[in-house]
Amino acid sequence: MTKAKDQIIAKIEEQKKNPNLRLKLKERTEYFTNLLFYTLFDSDTEVKKNIDILEQTFLELVDLACWETEKPCSSIWQSYLEKLPEVLQKLNKDADSFIKSDPAANSIEEVYLAYPGFYAIAIYRLSHELLKFGLPLIPRLMTEYSHRLTGTDINPGAEIGESFFIDHATGIVIGETAIIKNNVKIYQGVTLGGLYVDRKLRNVKRHPTVEDNVTIYANATILGGTTIIGANSTVGGNAWITSSVPENSIISNTSEIKIKKVV
Fold it and tell me: Rounded to an integer, what is the distance from CA 166 to the centroid of its chain?
């Protein structure tokens, strides 16, 4: 029995070929993400104390995620820290857009505490800034943590402007090269995706651009890197779009619905 067990262990160890695959990195990134959220928003959290804890946690993440021997990633923290006030300012504008857009929102506190769309935007913005410093794995883990909690999948590489509103959140997908400009509203089930998946498209813009003041209703699908939704347009629910739309447009799904009265 012992020999058989030893053989199984040897086979498992033989197949563990990724020396840098440490699940602790995922767990500590989730802890770091929660610390960030508390530091920026929780009125009972002491900012100075949490900043120190964030720094220590970030250095721990560097040891786990930055595999270069010289550890150049350790210099990122101060630059990232300097970006946090600007990120918070943007998030406060996002929260204001929730209050202005959703009649069900009773208070700004409710938006911060109870809206999965706001949480998804917050973690996206925090991860996006970190991604700019050339440390891709941690931002991706941050947004995947948010994805698991909210049902909203926003790649940290997407470019999103100010006063962004996501309602209901569930099922939204925003791809890596998507560009969303200012004052955009998106409802549940919307996809901003690529026309097809191919590894050759890795460094190509493959997701759409959404210009200022656009509203995209539930379950609309917009695909393609050259697809542009012009400013001030409204995309109706269940629309399927693979080519550009001029500004000030209304796009609707014209499927016929029949209602019969049954006696």
Answer: 11
Q: Kindly state the tokens that stand for 76.
A: 């990122």
**Domain range list for the chain:** 22-156, 171-252
What mean pLDDT do residues 111-125 have?
98
- Number of Cβ within a 10 Å radius of residue 206: 21
Q: Given this structure, which CATH class describes domain 22-156? A: mainly alpha
Q: State CA 216 to chain mean position distance.
A: 17
Q: Summarize pLDDT for 235-255 with one digit per residue, the tens.
A: 999 999 999 999 999 999 877
Burial class (CB in 10 A: 0-12, 13-18, 19+), 19: exposed
Whether 128 and 115 have beta carbons less than 8 Å apart is answered as no
For residues 158 and 4, give the distance between their C-alpha atoms in angstroms, rounded to a whole number. 50
Percent above pLDDT 90 for the chain: 81
Cβ–Cβ under 8 Å, residues 140 and 154: no
For 4-29, give the DSSP string. Answer: HHHHHHHHHHHH---TT--HHHHHHH
pLDDT tens per residue across span 37-78: 999 999 999 999 999 999 999 999 988 887 665 556 667 999
> Is residue 217 within 8 Å of 187, Cβ to Cβ?
yes
pTM of the model: 0.92
Higher pLDDT, 138 or 260: 138
Q: Which CATH class is domain 171-252?
A: mainly beta
Categorize the per-residue pLDDT at 161 as very low, low, confident or very high, splitting at 50, 70 and 90: very high
Residues contacting residue 160 through CB under 8 Å, at least 6 positions apart: 121, 124, 125, 128, 154, 174, 180, 184
